[in-house]
Amino acid sequence: MKYKYQLITLGSDTPFIENILSLFNSRVSELNISLDSFKIINRDNFEREYLGNQPAFTFYFGDKNGNFKDVEIAKKLLEDGSMILPIFFTEDAFSDEIPKVLENQNGIQYKQIENDRIVNIALESFELLRNTRKIFISYRRDESSSVAIQLFEALESHNFDVFLDTHSVGKGEPFQEELWHRMADSDVIVLLSTPEFLSSKWCEEEFAEAGAKQIGIIQLVWPNHNIEKDDTSHISYPTKLKKENFVNDLFDDKDASKLKSDFLENIIKDVESIRARNLAARQDSLITNFRSIASKLGKNIVVQPERFLTEDLPGDLRRIFIPTIGVPQSNSCQTAEIRNEMRSGKVSIRLIYDDLRIRKKWIDHLDWLNTNLNIDIKTLKKQEFESWLRNN
């Protein structure tokens, strides 16, 4: 059976549904996943199209007047263990605008600025987008500390896991090693480009490391600073700040400068927006590198629509290679299609990952798991692609 992701819309017939679906399609395209892997379901085709044994995610749009639709369908989905995201419209009115059957589900208030977050929640539920939501703030302490802390607090309030050196390195941890590790495991870097940023050895190295790891950068360029063309890359999204973006036009006080709240919201929206694009770029890099080496060694590696790789062997055996961003986790292989493959009992799985700048203690731990535990899922680091493919 070919599994499809079922995206379901229920509840009020609001025009916002089309906005969400259009953005969802754009994000899927950015992830280089075929839209044929999805089917869109609503009350009109639910009985005909919905399958309880295939992955499903539901947007339930509430009603300001309490006239709730599709409640029985929502009950059915809850019984099947499907995730439902209730979307309400008025602040603090969740219980008035969402039916009681969904009262135990975490909801979100609809705002246009939240469209990216709403779509990303669905992609995370389908396990097509990492749900770790890791962000790295790069800055020069003696130029932009107050804005860095403001961003840290704002991003954390939007459920991002944010790395800021003054807040995120534990006591006794090797500072620089932990910093590179957290950067390697991040989805997006927010870089505060102040006039002397690149004059700092560490800031310059952070910028170079981001390029080497192909991590997307949102670069906020201070009003009194102009970036040179060679300071940017194809994965950098520079925004030239104006003094009016700052509270009281104060942009050059490291301890007192603050971004205005509406501008801060736009930055958070941009962070949400480029997560899928950056994930796709890093996956493409791993896939291209792995397939190139395999092809050179005469192996036929096929890219599946869900963005994992397969190699068919004699005796109906199959290898699955899953491009994994950051530090490999066990849930990196939980998409429905891979779970279906695993049921055959003739599948071996490798999580392929770029080990550059990941802390040695993590790599040693992953290598120990590969050697000492009889598990179905093992890891394979980028620097060992060729030697492993040559010998297996």
Automatic annotation (TrEMBL):
It comes from Fibrella forsythiae. Residues 131-271 form the TIR domain. Keywords: Receptor. InterPro entries: TIR_dom, Toll_tir_struct_dom_sf. It comes from the Bacteria. SUPFAM superfamilies: Toll/Interleukin receptor TIR domain (SSF52200). Gene3D superfamilies: Toll/interleukin-1 receptor homology (TIR) domain (3.40.50.10140). This is Toll/interleukin-1 receptor domain-containing protein.
